[in-house]
Automatic annotation (TrEMBL):
<comment type="subunit">
    <text>Homotetramer; dimer of dimers.</text>
</comment>
<dbReference type="GO" id="GO:0009089">
    <property type="term" value="P:lysine biosynthetic process via diaminopimelate"/>
</dbReference>
<dbReference type="InterPro" id="IPR013785">
    <property type="entry name" value="Aldolase_TIM"/>
</dbReference>
<dbReference type="GO" id="GO:0005829">
    <property type="term" value="C:cytosol"/>
</dbReference>
<comment type="pathway">
    <text>Amino-acid biosynthesis; L-lysine biosynthesis via DAP pathway; (S)-tetrahydrodipicolinate from L-aspartate: step 3/4.</text>
</comment>
<dbReference type="GO" id="GO:0008840">
    <property type="term" value="F:4-hydroxy-tetrahydrodipicolinate synthase activity"/>
</dbReference>
<dbReference type="GO" id="GO:0019877">
    <property type="term" value="P:diaminopimelate biosynthetic process"/>
</dbReference>
<keyword id="KW-0220">Diaminopimelate biosynthesis</keyword>
<dbReference type="Pfam" id="PF00701">
    <property type="entry name" value="DHDPS"/>
</dbReference>
<protein>
    <recommendedName>
        <fullName>4-hydroxy-tetrahydrodipicolinate synthase</fullName>
        <ecNumber>4.3.3.7</ecNumber>
    </recommendedName>
</protein>
<feature type="site" description="Part of a proton relay during catalysis">
    <location>
        <position position="112"/>
    </location>
</feature>
<keyword id="KW-0704">Schiff base</keyword>
<comment type="similarity">
    <text>Belongs to the DapA family.</text>
</comment>
<dbReference type="InterPro" id="IPR002220">
    <property type="entry name" value="DapA-like"/>
</dbReference>
<keyword id="KW-0456">Lyase</keyword>
<dbReference type="InterPro" id="IPR020624">
    <property type="entry name" value="Schiff_base-form_aldolases_CS"/>
</dbReference>
<feature type="binding site">
    <location>
        <position position="50"/>
    </location>
    <ligand>
        <name>pyruvate</name>
    </ligand>
</feature>
């Protein structure tokens, strides 16, 4: 069973801060990145779904990686979201991310066009050949409309730079089998499955909720690694109310994170209402207060 962790265990899918005028706020991004690393994140995913990748330009994506790299130094892993529906464009973004100082690439399955599995495989293989960086396959069929089927994932695992998966497939059986059969490092992309996937050999997680509760999510993995699986289960259970409200409450995770941390969104996303934001704050405060009670 693989214990390969190319990017560490605890990764945050970081939001992209903007100014009130809608410009990229690199100062705030660097502050948030440094805070997340200090609070226990091993690395950050920049410019992914939570980072509002559909509404940030290629130049902004590169600027964000360069600024955060300078802010956090060479230690933490920086994975750049470069996925698009266009293979050529994705490869261009991958080369830009490499030049900007990224340690890895997050590449989502091409969306909307719904390519067949041979085309899905060809897409990832061409992007992997475009740089010298390790690549994390982002399997999220609920958003893309196309799953990376297990046989396709086995094929991709043969490429030396396709090393990891951000798993939002909601198929724990298939994920557990692929962890056992391949050298791929599986990262949970669904917070409610962080502990279950880790328990069957997963590498860790890439989490949106970690923007607001990085220490609490990492504590689950720390407890499991220490051998106290009962404590890990209790700590995991404590995170679930906030996870459910943030990730399954009808709003994108980007919106719910910014309801808690503040800051503008880019349209078509719009801010959460006051009642929703108040409910989120109450759940976060409850989680923070429970931290001292083992």
């Amino acid at each position: 069973m693989s214990t390969h962790r190319p990017f560490g265990r605890a990764l945050c899918a970081m939001i992209t801060p903007f100014t009130d005028s809608g410009a990229l706020d690199l100062d705030r991004a660097c502050e948030l990145a440094a805070h997340l690393i200090a609070e226990g994140c091993d690395g950050l995913v920049l410019g992914g779904t939570t980072g509002e990748s559909p509404t940030t330009s290629d130049a902004e994506k590169g600027a964000l990686v360069r600024a955060v790299r300078a802010a956090v130094g060479p230690g933490p892993s920086l994975v750049a979201g470069v996925g698009t529906a266009d293979t050529r464009h994705t490869a261009e973004l991958a080369r830009g991310a490499e030049a900007a100082g990224a340690d890895g690439l997050l590449v989502v399955t091409p969306y909307y066009s719904r390519p067949p599995q041979d085309a899905v495989a060809a897409h990832f293989l061409k992007v992997a050949d475009a740089t010298g960086l390790p690549l994390m396959v982002y399997d999220i069929p609920g958003r893309t409309g196309t799953r990376v089927e297990p046989d396709t994932m086995r094929r991709l695992a043969g490429h030396p730079r396709i090393t990891a998966v951000k798993d939002c497939s909601y198929d724990l059986l298939a994920s557990a089998r692929l962890i056992a059969e391949t050298g791929l490092a599986y990262y949970s992309g669904s917070e409610e499955l962080n502990l279950p996937l880790y328990a069957v050999g997963g590498a860790g997680y890439v989490s949106t909720v970690a923007n607001v509760a990085p220490r609490q999510l990492r504590a689950v993995l720390d407890a499991y690694d220490s051998g106290d699986t009962a404590l890990a289960a209790r700590l995991h259970a404590r995170t679930l109310p906030l996870t459910e409200r943030m990730m399954a409450g009808g709003l994108p995770g980007t919106v719910t994170v910014k309801a808690l941390l503040g800051g503008p969104l880019r349209e078509p996303l719009r801010p959460a209402g006051r009642e929703t934001a108040d409910g989120l704050r109450a759940l976060l405060e409850e989680l923070l207060q429970a931290e001292s009670v083992v």
